[in-house]
Design a protein that fits this description.
about 575 residues; alpha/beta; Gyrase A, domain 2; Rossmann fold; 5 domains; 4-stranded antiparallel sheet; RNA-binding
RNA sequence: GCGCCCGUAGCUCAGUUGGAUAGAGCAUCUGCCUUCUAAGCAGAGGGUCCUGCGUUCGAGUCGCAGCGGGCGUACCA
């Protein structure tokens, strides 16, 4: 927040000197080493080079013209022409006071607000949600929370896989294999089972292969596509049952969608999409299919995209194009974000390229936010011992169970219900944190031990710091005292190194949240919160709070109060809650 | 073949328009609980940032070439 003011004054000073300079390249960023200061700019070096000036001399002259006395110590020029800024304690105290009065929480919204559609999670009907869905769900939800926090209008849409050739087999299975008791017990497991049975009969290299079943599956699919009332009713029922199970998971994860418009929602639009693409000459017939070619795009030259298959059926490219057009017509978004696996990069390049040709008038930014795979300890994609996908519900159960074991060990005297609630919050938080902490583009190795470790950069560490703050205020309340942040702010004083370090950390929150939004990388926020929690525990060890004398005592309480709010807000942006105690 | 990603401490990984002496956790070692939660803190050791060449005042970061690994690549999504 103070960084922004420094940057603005720097840009103004540069423009006074060079009216034609580009302010977008005049940036102030955190110092890599706190010995140099809190913030620095290196933009003047490049600026001087362009204009054949001496960089150090230019830096010295600009630094003298900044008018930063209310915010920083006198700026220092260093090395080849860096300018280093050190925040004044009074400026930090004033910032904390404004936060105490509720004027901000160390983060300012983006202006102007934008409309952003986020497409994430997208599980398939009649299949259990498994680890393959976790990153999309958690990352997408986190980005939605971040962008909303920055003041944008966010529309989340769960593009369910509720249509496709698998329904031919599912319909045969429903009519010939269904065990209604099993369906009542665990609908998805039963749908999965009947699918497997029929799929085995349809596949030619299976010992159960039966050409008649394959034929029947095709016939049932055609009937569904033609609107046969019985098949449509069964199909709707399968969607309903699946959504109940998805919703149970989303409730546990505290994930919400504004819309759930599955693939089938776009069925009516598909023929029109293809007709329009043909009319505009964007696709043409090739080997019986209708295909878009990209001879003028080097990366896509060797990768044409099929928009209608030889047999006349549409595929996911067609559906995604219809979806894009619908979203544009309905919400006029400034941006549409797709959160999927990195393996779909080529697909989205093709879809975006086709859409640009199809609707060149649409200015919407199209973004594919992709992520790597979750691997087992053997370096291969994570599976159960029997080679199945790990079900998300099982994974969440185990996270909570493991957390419960630790809670019981650490807090044997708490009531069992409290232990379970604490374990639930920690377990779910640990899963989310472990997923958001790695750079999203890298594959990461899933490890229970690391995820629920009690130290290191983990959810329990952050939650522990937060509950220690809660504990301080609980003690205060038990003593019958009331804490008034505004009154504390009026006489706040920061002198101890760990106090000042904490205040500086709070000030940086704004920078980090904006960096997350700009690059779609929640791991920046994870690392920030870890540092904030670390700065708090260092302060906690060095500075008694309740036992100190006024006015130090209320200043430290104010720090605790604000650190808790930022931890709570930051963890909230990751979709993670804080237990009452640990 | 073409395209994308990765290669950083023994292990798992961060590393923000290119920025100063490359960071963290785990593991190893040394201290710290009669004081607000030790699920903690303070400290130590540990590096040819895959290799080479180039651009630059400055390269883990950018470009080119190579090596090693993962993934994608015409009718699944």
């Amino acid at each position: 927040m103070l960084r922004q003011q420094i940057e603005q004054r720097l840009q103004e000073a540069v423009l006074r000197r060079f009216p034609d300079a580009d302010p977008a390249s005049i940036l102030v960023r955190p110092c890599p080493d706190e010995r140099f200061g809190d913030y620095q700019t290196n933009a003047l070096i490049g600026l001087a080079k362009q204009r054949r000036l001496n960089p150090r001399q230019l830096a010295t002259e600009i630094a003298a013209d900044l008018g930063l006395d209310d915010l920083t110590e006198p700026p220092e020029v260093a090395g080849p022409g860096f300018v280093n800024f050190r925040l004044r304690p009074q400026a930090l105290v004033a910032l904390l006071a404004r936060a105490a009065r509720g004027e901000h929480l160390f983060c300012q919204p983006d202006a102007p607000p934008r409309t952003v559609v986020i497409d994430f999670s997208s599980p398939n009907v009649a299949k259990p949600m498994h680890v393959g869905h976790i990153r999309s769900t958690i990352l997408g939800d986190c980005l939605a929370r971040i962008l909303r926090h920055l003041g944008h209008r966010v529309i989340t849409d769960n593009h369910l896989g509720d249509w496709g050739t698998q329904f031919g087999m599912l319909l045969v299975g429903w009519k010939t294999e269904l065990d209604s008791d099993a369906l009542a017990r665990d609908a998805i497991a039963e749908l999965e089972r009947i699918y497997r049975v029929i799929n085995a009969r349809c596949s030619e290299d299976s010992p159960d292969h039966d050409p008649a079943v394959l034929e029947r599956a095709r016939a049932e699919l055609v009937k569904l596509q033609q609107g046969d009332p019985e098949n449509v009713a069964i199909w709707r029922r399968m969607i309903e049952l699946s959504r109940e199970q998805f919703d149970a998971i989303y409730r546990r994860l505290d994930v919400r969608f504004d819309h759930t418009l599955g693939e089938s929602f776009y069925n009516d639009r598909l023929p029109g999409v293809v007709a329009s693409l043909l009319e505009k000459g964007i696709i043409r017939e090739s080997e019986g299919a209708l295909v878009a070619f990209f001879d003028d795009v080097p990366a896509l030259k060797a990768h044409p995209a099929i928009v209608r298959k030889r047999d006349g059926a549409f595929n996911y490219t067609t559906t995604d194009l219809a979806t894009l057009e619908y979203r544009w017509e309905t919400w006029r978004p400034d941006e549409i974000i797709y959160v999927t696996d990195g393996r779909q990069q080529l697909h989205f390049q093709q879809v975006f390229e086709i859409f640009r040709r199809w609707h060149p008038e649409v200015p919407t930014r199209l973004t594919h936010v992709w992520f790597g795979s979750i691997l087992g300890e053997n370096g291969q994609p994570l599976k159960t011992r029997s080679g199945q996908n790990v079900k998300l519900a099982d994974l969440l159960d185990e996270a909570e169970e493991r957390a419960l074991r630790v809670v019981r060990e650490k807090n044997p005297d708490l009531p069992a219900a409290d232990q379970r609630e604490i374990a639930r919050v920690i377990g779910i938080g640990a899963v989310k944190y472990a997923d958001l902490l790695p750079n999203r583009q890298s594959d990461y190795v899933f490890s229970w031990d690391k995820m629920l470790a009690l130290n290191g950069n983990t959810a329990p560490y952050l939650l522990y710091a937060a509950t220690r703050i809660r504990s301080i205020f609980r003690k205060l309340e038990e003593a019958g005292e009331r804490f008034d942040p505004v009154a504390a702010a009026d006489r706040a004083t920061l002198t101890e190194p760990t106090e000042l370090a904490l205040a500086r950390m709070l000030e940086r929150f704004d920078f980090v949240v904006h960096a997350v939004a700009a690059e779609y990388r929640p791991n920046y926020l994870c690392n920030y919160l870890y540092e904030l929690a670390g700065a708090f525990t260092a302060f906690y060890e060095a500075c008694p709070v309740l036992r100190s004398e006024e006015p130090v005592r209320s200043s430290r309480l104010l720090l605790c109060h604000l650190v808790f709010k930022v931890l709570e807000t930051g963890l909230g942006l990751l979709g993670i809650g804080i237990p009452e105690r640990m």
